């Protein structure tokens, strides 16, 4: 059993910086403006020889019901309910504020063990302000600077002491930590038998977070009518019909020309990273105004990354003429995304739960197709029949010879075509081969790569 530690505190005290420091990678967006973190995030924390589950939470604020700030506080409370220990972080340069005192009292009522962390102690001002932490009545404050890595040994000692007092915590010795700062994607490599990595992407305000909440059956993400509520890429480990899924909610993607603020650029970078690390990507469209240029641009980005794609037309319950709308959508996709011909399209309502099982079935079907391998013998029989029926055109009066084809890898399906003059095969003929390959071996809706190569000429000196 691994202890769960939640980082809590008012906005802009350095909670996400501390989270990134302890997990050893940039999992949470860090920005000086308050309120950047809106959904709690999870990572595997390491400090010396300690290993623990770590939760980064939104900033705690007093807020009226129904506001985004109130929803953020609900998220922090949800994370705290899972925690064995809380790290209450305050800004030592600013000293203890009335809000710090208020939430220290709230934590005391929750009954969760608390370690007070005086952050931003890299200067003498911070070190003096850290002493105010004693006024919270929650024990000795740990003086540190998450940004500069100062005071980590003191935090480790406080964690060891706290873990020892937690009833039932850690039935076995702490796992050894991975030394040093991990590379950004060190634990994100493909692992056979691991959870399916599924990213949910789309324009702002199309219902991505509502869809994630509907899939997992809980209010895990902050939602609302305002666009741009989600800022981080938030992963959720979950199961569907006994199959493990790592589901990632992402920030909305607008046209690059409209992205001017630093915080939004960071959010876009997180979304693009989530696409790169995904195996299947669900592109959510607003069915009332779907298949706009930005939708298609996002779809092309997913295909360029080689990820399996599934289209979810959300808010379908608001469409007046479903048959005509679905026909328009499919025509638009066939015209604008010929490189993933046959991509699965599912009409859903994230708010009511309509067709969410159908969407997940399409996701797993796309995943199976994305992983498919075709035997070399079958490929070459197909190539021989196809060339006999429609041979490649002659170039400059010379005939092109297609000699051999083999699948180099899956994820996505990638094929090597050996030819006499690969650089001179017309693009139109390569598209003809790709379309027939997709149809002959049942590879709809996933990126398919056909790479022409030439064999070594024995008459040319090495």
Q: Please, could you describe this protein's structure?
A:
The chain is of the alpha/beta class and 462 residues long. The protein folds into three domains: 4-165, P-loop containing nucleotide triphosphate hydrolases (Rossmann fold); 196-370, Rossmann fold; 376-454, K homology (KH) domain (GMP Synthetase, Chain A, domain 3). It contains twelve helices and 15 strands. The longest helix is centred in the middle third of the chain and has 16 residues, at 262-277. The termini are far apart. The model is unreliable at 168-192 (pLDDT under 50).
Give a concise summary:
This protein is α/β, with parallel strands linked by helices. 33% of the residues lie in helices and 20% in strands. Helix 8 links the parallel strand 10 and strand 11.
Write the layout of secondary structure elements.
Blueprint: E1 4-8, H1 15-23, E2 41-47, E3 50-56, H2 68-81, E4 85-91, H3 98-110, E5 114-119, H4 124-130, E6 142-143, H5 152-165, E7 196-202, H6 208-216, E8 234-240, E9 243-249, H7 262-277, E10 280-286, H8 293-304, E11 308-314, H9 322-336, E12 344-347, H10 356-370, H11 376-389, E13 402-409, E14 414-419, H12 427-440, E15 449-454
Parallel strand pairs: 1-3, 1-4, 4-5, 5-6, 7-9, 7-10, 10-11, 11-12, 14-15
Antiparallel strand pairs: 2-3, 8-9, 13-14
């Amino acid at each position: 059993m691994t202890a769960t530690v939640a980082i809590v505190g008012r906005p802009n005290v350095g909670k996400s910086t501390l989270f990134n420091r302890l997990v050893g990678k940039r999992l949470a967006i860090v920005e000086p403006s308050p309120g950047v973190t809106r959904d709690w995030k999870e990572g595997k924390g390491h400090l010396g020889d300690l290993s623990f589950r770590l939760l980064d939470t939104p900033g705690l604020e007093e807020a009226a019901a129904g506001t985004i700030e109130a929803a953020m506080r609900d998220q922090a409370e949800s994370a705290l309910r899972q925690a064995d220990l809380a790290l209450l972080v305050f800004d030592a340069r600013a000293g203890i504020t009335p809000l710090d005192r208020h939430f220290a009292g709230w934590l005391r009522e929750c009954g969760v063990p608390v370690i007070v962390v005086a952050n931003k102690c890299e200067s003498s001002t911070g070190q003096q302000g850290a002493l105010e932490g004693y006024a919270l009545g929650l024990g000795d404050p740990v003086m540190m600077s998450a940004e500069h890595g100062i005071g980590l040994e003191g935090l480790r000692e406080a964690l060891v002491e706290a873990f020892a007092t937690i009833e039932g915590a850690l039935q076995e010795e702490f796992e050894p930590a991975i030394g040093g700062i991990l590379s950004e994607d060190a634990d994100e490599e493909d692992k056979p038998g691991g959870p399916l990595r599924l990213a949910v992407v789309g324009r702002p305000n199309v219902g991505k977070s509502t869809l994630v909440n509907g899939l997992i059956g809980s209010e895990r993400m902050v939602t609302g009518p305002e666009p741009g509520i989600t800022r981080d890429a938030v992963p959720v480990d979950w199961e569907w019909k006994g199959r493990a899924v790592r589901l990632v909610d992402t920030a909305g993607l607008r046209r690059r020309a409209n992205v001017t603020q630093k915080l939004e650029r960071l959010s876009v970078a997180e979304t693009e990273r989530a696409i790169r690390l995904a195996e299947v990507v669900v592109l959510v469209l607003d069915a009332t105004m779907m298949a706009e240029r930005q939708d298609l641009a996002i779809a092309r980005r997913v295909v360029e990354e080689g990820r399996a794609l599934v289209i979810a037309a959300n808010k379908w319950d608001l469409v007046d003429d479903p048959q005509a709308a679905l026909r328009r959508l499919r025509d638009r996709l066939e015209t604008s995304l010929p490189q993933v011909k046959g991509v699965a399209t599912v009409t859903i309502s994230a708010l009511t739960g309509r067709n969410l099982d159908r969407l997940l079935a399409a996701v797993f079907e796309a995943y199976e197709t994305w992983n498919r391998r075709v035997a070399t013998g079958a490929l070459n029989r197909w190539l021989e029949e196809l060339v006999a029926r429609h041979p490649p055109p002659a170039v400059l009066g010379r005939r092109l010879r297609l000699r051999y084809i083999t699948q180099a890898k899956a994820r996505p399906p990638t094929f090597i075509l050996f030819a006499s003059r690969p650089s001179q095969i017309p693009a139109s003929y390569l598209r003809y081969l790709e379309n027939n390959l997709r149809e002959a071996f049942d590879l709809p809706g996933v990126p398919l790569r056909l790479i022409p190569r030439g064999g070594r000429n024995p008459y040319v000196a090495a």
